[in-house]
Design brief:
It is a single chain. The strands form 4 sheets. A 4-stranded antiparallel beta sheet has the order 4-1-10-11. Strands 6-7-8 form a 3-stranded antiparallel beta sheet, covered by helices on one side. The chain has a two-stranded antiparallel sheet with strand order 2-3. With 251 residues, the chain is α+β, with helices and mostly antiparallel strands. Helices cover 35% and strands 22% of the residues. The chain contains 9 helices and 11 strands.
């Protein structure tokens, strides 16, 4: 972890058919840090996957950031581990193909409010570990093209598409012209249909790192093990009150 210039918190599918097919489509497996042969689908895969290939197949939870001065990678590891122990998994019915601002992505169906709340919590809790943006980093976000609210979010949280602007998605392509987008949507929907998870579950936080000389890599998974509110209530109801005569076992 010590040789990473930036870190990010992502969703990435667990090992299996979905993760394998996505890695092959993008031509890169972030779990192993190795390139993959891209499939022949009648699409120019290497040309239309350049941007998502740099990051590996993922859904952003907390966007890439540099560590603040005095913060070590071990501090980030400990903070994510603690946070994941408090957060609950999020389960949604399924994923579907969607065209977003010119690029194709898989997006979840159903009530995404719990996923948005999870992402907001991760952004807030880990933000003290993030270094402030440099002027060059701000300029790369093209603030002149952002709304006033998005510029505020960029200044406060280091990224314009967080909090109420957050939209979870798993990017599959670069921006495409309309004809290519329509064709690719049909082909990729058919290609991914057999492996799309039902239900779609976010059960861990994935720490990714960006080395100085390559694309992002998956560094660690942290299981979301927080108890649901109804689970906590059940535990409290089952737990004897202080002074209850049933507490007879020595501690």
């Amino acid at each position: 972890m010590n040789d990473m210039k930036r870190f990010a918190i992502y969703y990435a599918p667990p090992a299996g058919a979905f993760a394998d097919l996505a890695a092959r489509w993008l031509g890169y497996d972030p779990a192993t840090g190795t390139s993959c042969s891209q499939p022949e689908l009648g699409l120019p895969a290497p040309r239309i996957t350049e941007e998502p290939r740099r990051y590996g197949f993922h859904g952003t939870i907390k966007p890439p950031f540099r560590l603040a001065q005095g913060v070590a990678p071990g501090d980030l590891d400990a903070a994510v581990r603690t946070l994941a122990a408090r957060l609950q998994p999020v389960v949604l019915p399924r994923l579907r193909m969607k065209l977003l601002d010119g690029f194709l992505a898989l997006v979840p169906e159903g009530d995404t409010a719990p996923l948005e709340a999870l992402a907001a919590q991760v952004v807030r809790d880990l933000d003290p570990l993030r270094a402030p943006l440099t002027e060059a980093e701000i300029a790369r976000r093209r603030p002149d093209r952002l709304t006033a609210r998005q510029r505020d979010l960029l200044e406060q949280w280091g990224y314009p598409f967080v909090m109420e602007e957050f939209r979870f998605h798993l990017t599959l392509t670069d921006r495409l012209d309309p004809g290519m987008a329509s064709r690719a949507a049909d082909l990729l929907a058919a290609h991914f249909a057999p492996v799309l998870p039902r239900p779609f579950a976010v059960t861990d936080l994935c720490l990714f790192g960006e080395p100085a000389d390559g694309p992002f890599r998956l560094l660690h998974r942290y299981a979301l093990t927080g108890a649901r509110a109804d689970d906590s209530a059940s535990m409290n109801r089952a737990r004897p009150a202080k002074g209850d005569a049933s507490l007879t076992t020595s501690q």
